[in-house]
Amino acid sequence: MGFKLTRSQFELAKFTLYLMIPISIMYYVGIDTDKKLDVPGFWPDPDTLNKVPKEKYQIQAELARMRAAKVEKRKRLEEKARELGITPESVNKKDDE
């Protein structure tokens, strides 16, 4: 006497298989990913990343640093423009023509 599989049992087995295979793969990949999928040096070291200032004095210090960098960049660009002979007057003359 053999085991006879009806159509409804077969469809139920297919459904179970189709449902469990992706869940099993996600479960396998999702557990202990630090060891299975570890690529040394992939993520940057947290010490080298930018830190968002949270305290008021940190925010003020960061704003002061940004302003100083902006002023320094402007001075550097103005100096370079002077070396190239670009002046506000020469720019205005070209606009008038």
From TrEMBL:
Q: In which broad location class does this protein mainly occur, judging by the first location in its UniProt entry?
A: membrane
Where it sits in the cell: the answer is: Membrane; Mitochondrion membrane
**Per the UniProt record, which residue ranges are transmembrane?**
12-30
Instruction: Extract the InterPro entries matched here.
Output: Pet100
- Any one GO molecular-function label of the UniProt entry: unfolded protein binding
Q: Which PANTHER family match?
A: PROTEIN PET100 HOMOLOG, MITOCHONDRIAL
Q: What is this protein called?
A: DEBR0S2_12354g1_1
Q: Give the species this sequence originates from.
A: Dekkera bruxellensis
